[in-house]
Give the backbone structure.
Amino acid sequence: MSLVTFILLAVAATANAATGVATFNNYDAQSGVACSGFSSTNSQGNGIYAAALGDLSPLWTGSECSGSIDSSNCNGSGGCIDCTGPSCSGEGQCGQCFQISCAGSLDGETSGACTGNTIIVKIIDACPATHPENYCKLAEFGGNVPANQCCEAAGVNAFDIATTAQSALSTFQYNLNINIEAVSC
Ligand SMILES: *[C@@H]1O[C@H](CO)[C@@H](O)[C@H](O)[C@H]1NC(C)=O
């Protein structure tokens, strides 16, 4: 293989690679999802896990979710009073699969480790920055969750992944830095 060919292949191989953060959600306990035609279950079949993509993520395609940030929807200690979420009808990544691996603890946990395993997640939901359940967690509204752990950080790929995938990725207890690659399902 020539050096030029090698470099072109290397560029192609990394073209789909990205980094981001993972939080975890129990889809089995949720009533619905933003992507029409998908069910709110942790397992999406064939060993694939459910995930929501934050609408401020660079990987998000289509229009962001509707809605706005309104402090009157927050209870002042991290929760929401009116917890109605916005419409995310423009979400372009619905049904897309991504290969995810752990790149470390996001919270600075000192006990635990990445497993080294990769998993496949399928985007079935959105994690909207304009959802009160997200923005009310920010310190400015009385919460204590960092912006990159509640889908509020612009420029960060935010994946809210099925809780059942947690132990496959790491032995950390909480949120993770992740490596991300778009793959076919
Ligand atoms: C605000 O909401 C959170 C989350 O639901 C709850 O834990 C907390 O007790 C609420 N605080 C007040 C002051 O209502």
Summary: The first helix runs from residue 3 to 14. The radius of gyration is 17 Å. Residues 47 and 120 are 8 Å apart (CA to CA). Strands lie at 17-25, 49-54, 97-105, 118-127, 157-162, 176-183.
